[in-house]
Structure formats: C-alpha cells, structure tokens
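Worked example 3 (structure in, sequence out).
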C-alpha cells in the first residue's frame, strides 16, 4: 500500500490527461505533476485516495530526452501552462495519444484512424485574448494568473503564450493604479460584507484582445462599480504606449461571482469593437464576443471541418452550437444552405451581422438549444445532408444525437474541445449507425494539455 509522506523511487510509465506523469507502485497509480514518460524520479506521496495517489516531484534521477527548460520564470507556480517542460514534438505526441486513448477507453472504438496532431510552427505568443485577475498582497498590486486550483494570484510581468501588448498593458495599469490610489477588488471582503463592501475604484480583471491579422487592440478594465477615477489618465497612457489601440472599455461587474465579465460595457475611448479575420472572413469582436483565441490554428481546424463536410454546393447543413457563426461562414462557401443554432442570443445577433458584412446570404441563424431547435426543424420538414456539431466541453445532449441519428444525414462532422466527451458521443453515434472514419487533432493551445479535435462520421446504412 502506498503511504502518505513517504518517499519513493519510481519509473514514469505514461502521462495522464492533464500531462502529469503516471507511475505504478505494485499496480497502484501515482500521479506526479512535472514528470515525463520514461523518467526515473524521486517522489514524496502527498495524498492517497482509494484508487490512486498524488506525488510531489522531489528529484529527477534519470531525465527524459524530451525534457526542456521552461521559458517562463513562473512556470512552476502559474496555473496556465502545464507542458512547457516537454519538447513541443512530445507535446503533440501526447495529445494524439490522449485522443486515441479516449476513443478506445470511453467510446469503445478500436479501429478509428487518428492522424498526428497538427502543431504550430512557432508555438508561442499565439493567444489573441488574455484575462488577468488583479489583486493585492502586502499592499502591492498583483496582476497575473491564478495558481493551480486556487484564487491566489501569481504576479506576472510577461507571458510567453499571450501577445506582447498584453504585457505592456499590465504594467501600464499597475503604474496607473498606484498613481491614482486605486485598489484591487477583494472577493473575500465582498463575500463577508456583502452590500456594505466598498466597490468604488476597485479593479477586478484586465482583458486585452488583439486582432492578429489587423493589429487592432482592445483594452477592457473590469471594475466592481461604475465609479472609477483617473479614466482620462488611463486612456492617455494607453494611447501613448500601445501600438494599434482601437478601443478602451470599462466593464462593470458588481456581483460576487467567479464570472469575469459583467453585462454592462462603457466605451471610454475609440470603437465598441475591433476587427479580425479567420481566413477570408472578417469578424467584429466586442468585449463579450466569443472568438477563438488562436486564429492561425482556428483556420487549420475549420479548414479540416470543411474538408470533412465534403460539400458540393447542393447540400443543406445544420451547424449546432454555432456561436458567432464562424464555422457557418466557412461552410456557406460550398453549401446550398446553412442553419446555425446557438442558445446565446447575443452570439446569434453577432452571427447575423458577421454574415451580412461578409456578403453571405445562404446562412440562417436561430436562437435556442440545439437539442430542441434541430428536432423542431426536422419536424417542420427541414432535413440536413451534413450536420456539424461544435459543442461545449460537456459534449452534445443525448436529445440532439438521437434527433441527428433519426434524420440520417450522410455525414456528421464533430468538432470537440474535450476528447473524453468526444469519445462518449462517438460511442453513442456508433449505436445509431454512424462510423467514425477519421479523426484530426489540432493543437490550439500549445504548452497546455488541451487539444481540439475534428472527426468525420459517415452513415453505415
């Protein structure tokens, strides 16, 4: 039996879904953050559960040839990246194996072709959006990222996966807060004092968005109330120092919540939106808009989805969980008609605007749950030759999968952000007569354990 607080010398035999090393003690799994497959390590057991344990990496006795020195100085404390200690080649291999593992273990699919994960030529500075929590420690302003599984802010001066303007904005706002005696929001104080908490001149988060193809930059200050002194000085500092600045926005979030953005946006300077491109299509991005954070890899992902759809110009397509219509626009180039469905009403409004501004006339967007809207469309006699689904992390609702199965489209293209729920849903679709023909992982988030996947399914009937 594995004993807590005891040291062990262990061989790392594989990696877990979060990229942590896995060793075995008499067949009992031990998860060790920071260890790589093939290494021999010294570990202290810190927690023992019924079926597995967690160990803290004490020493690397035999090092993997794929181990790399992380480029980030706060890598071991920050909760953002989890794979910087591994070569990029091995990161891609890990993500391919993770998808394969989920298909076999969860979906019970043994003979599906899983292609090698498509990576980036330069896997740094790829994110076009950053959200930085703001706090205080010993009267010093902390701007950075949360430590793993906590709300402790790790102060950060530079992040190697965010765009450079975000680093500059963070330092400007740090200086501006000190100069104007503006405090950081304290969630504990808000929870304890509730309505009596002083929310004036309190900064909660900083969000910075950049259009990678246009160079346009949006800075969003998330504050605990409308009251915020020194706004003019902040705008002046940003205008003077941030190249491509197009928009400065104050977002008000007075609720005691973990949600970053509130519903109210006040444009302090410039435009309400910035613009960016994915492929040939341009999109207007507001503070509250969803937009993929890695535009280069998004183009790769959507291009593969379009390829798998196999459109000739005669097909009707359902795009479930369409968001702001990004995939719908790609599909509209080669489809006869596209129906996009999304539960978030503002996203559908954005989708309609995006379609109009890009001259797309064969796409229709509907507000509602895909699990309800698509069965309604089918009952009304609207059928799809191809269905594309791009669900949230929890995967597709069973009602939607059943409706798709009964309708019987020729092809289904499943875009997934979680291999576990992908495996589950592909197993369900197999029971409905759909065979997973090919799976393509795409590395949208280098140096993290996350992987996007697009899968082609065809009707067995």
């Amino acid at each position: 039996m594995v004993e807590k607080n005891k040291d062990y010398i262990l061989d790392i035999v594989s990696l877990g879904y979060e990229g942590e090393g896995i060793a075995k003690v008499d067949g009992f799994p031990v998860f060790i953050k920071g260890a790589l497959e093939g290494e021999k390590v010294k570990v202290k057991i810190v927690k023992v559960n019924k079926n597995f344990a967690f160990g803290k990496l004490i020493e690397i006795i035999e090092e993997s040839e794929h181990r790399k020195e992380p480029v980030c100085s706060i890598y071991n404390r920050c909760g953002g990246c989890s794979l910087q200690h591994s070569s990029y080649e091995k990161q891609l291999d890990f993500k391919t194996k993770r998808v394969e593992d989920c298909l076999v273990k969860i979906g019970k699919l043994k003979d599906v072709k899983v292609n090698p994960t498509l990576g980036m030529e330069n896997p740094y500075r790829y994110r076009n959006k950053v959200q930085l929590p703001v706090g205080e420690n010993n009267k010093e302003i902390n701007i950075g990222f949360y430590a793993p599984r906590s709300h402790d802010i790790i102060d950060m001066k530079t992040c190697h996966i965010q765009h450079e303007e975000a680093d500059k904005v963070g330092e400007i706002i740090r200086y501006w807060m000190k100069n104007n005696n503006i405090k950081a929001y304290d969630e504990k104080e808000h929870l304890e004092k509730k309505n009596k908490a002083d929310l004036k001149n309190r900064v909660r988060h900083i969000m910075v968005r950049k259009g990678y193809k246009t160079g346009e930059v949006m800075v969003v200050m998330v504050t605990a109330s409308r009251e915020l002194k020194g706004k003019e000085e902040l705008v002046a500092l940003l205008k003077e120092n941030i190249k491509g600045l197009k928009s400065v926005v104050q977002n008000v979030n007075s609720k005691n919540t973990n949600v970053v953005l509130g519903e109210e946006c006040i444009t302090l300077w410039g435009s309400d939106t910035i613009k960016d491109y994915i492929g040939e299509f341009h999109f207007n991005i507001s503070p509250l808009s969803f937009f993929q954070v890695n535009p280069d890899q998004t183009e790769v992902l959507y291009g593969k989805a379009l390829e798998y759809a196999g459109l000739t110009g005669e097909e009707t397509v359902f795009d479930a969980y369409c968001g702001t219509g990004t995939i719908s626009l790609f599909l509209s180039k080669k489809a006869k008609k596209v129906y996009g469905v999304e539960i978030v009403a503002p996203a559908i409004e954005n989708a309609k605007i995006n379609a109009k501004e890009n001259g797309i006339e064969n796409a229709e967007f509907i507000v509602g749950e895909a699990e309800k809207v698509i069965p309604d469309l089918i009952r009304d006699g609207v059928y799809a030759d191809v269905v594309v689904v791009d669900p949230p992390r929890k995967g597709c609702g069973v009602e939607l999968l059943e409706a798709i199965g009964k309708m019987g489209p020729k092809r289904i293209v499943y875009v997934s952000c979680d291999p576990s729920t992908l495996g589950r849903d592909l197993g369900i679709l197999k029971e409905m007569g759909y065979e997973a023909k090919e799976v393509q992982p795409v590395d949208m988030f280098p140096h993290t354990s996350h992987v996007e996947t697009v899968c082609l399914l065809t009707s067995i009937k």
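Notes: The longest strand covers residues 53-62. The chain has a mean pLDDT of 93.
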